[in-house]
């Protein structure tokens, strides 16, 4: 039985999910991520919960953020000494968990 190759669309999806954090870090370019849109679109509702999740963030940190995931990742890197990929993963995981708990698709 011959093994069928993955369709190009599936292969491209897998490669983009695996490689995008590495490429972003190397090139400085960011890839559009739907979880980032959720964070920015619901920032007024989420900022208190963000501060509960990451209690080392100060009131000043929260006040300076506009809801962009990139900004939050920068602050998480400073306060928690995360690498960029780790900060992005923390945000994505929190949004996924938060979304399931509150009926929001992340």
Account of the protein in words:
It is a single chain. This protein has 106 residues and is mainly alpha-helical. It has a domain at 45-106: YjbJ (Protein Yjbj, Chain: A, Orthogonal Bundle). The protein contains six helices and no strands. It has helices at 8-27, 34-41, 43-53, 59-64, 69-80, 84-102. Helix 2 crosses helix 6 and helix 5 (69-80) crosses helix 6 (84-102).
What is the gyration radius calculated from CA atoms?
A: 16 Å
State the end-to-end CA separation. Answer: 39 Å
The CATH class of the domain at 45-106: Mainly Alpha
Task: List unreliable stretches of 5+ residues.
Answer: none
Q: How many beta strands in the DSSP annotation?
A: 0
Helical residue percent band? over 70%
In short:
The chain is an all-alpha fold and 106 residues long. The protein has helices spanning 8-27, 34-41, 43-53, 59-64, 69-80, 84-102.
């Amino acid at each position: 039985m011959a093994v069928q190759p993955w369709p190009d669309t599936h292969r491209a999806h897998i490669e983009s999910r695996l490689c995008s954090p590495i490429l972003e870090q190397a090139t400085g370019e960011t890839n559009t991520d739907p979880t980032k849109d959720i964070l920015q679109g619901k920032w007024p509702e989420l900022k208190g919960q963000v501060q509960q999740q990451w209690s080392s963030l100060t009131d000043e940190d929260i006040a300076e953020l506009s809801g962009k995931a990139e900004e939050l990742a920068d602050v998480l890197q400073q306060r928690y000494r995360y690498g960029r990929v780790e900060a992005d993963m923390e945000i994505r995981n929190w949004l996924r968990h938060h979304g399931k708990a509150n009926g929001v698709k992340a």
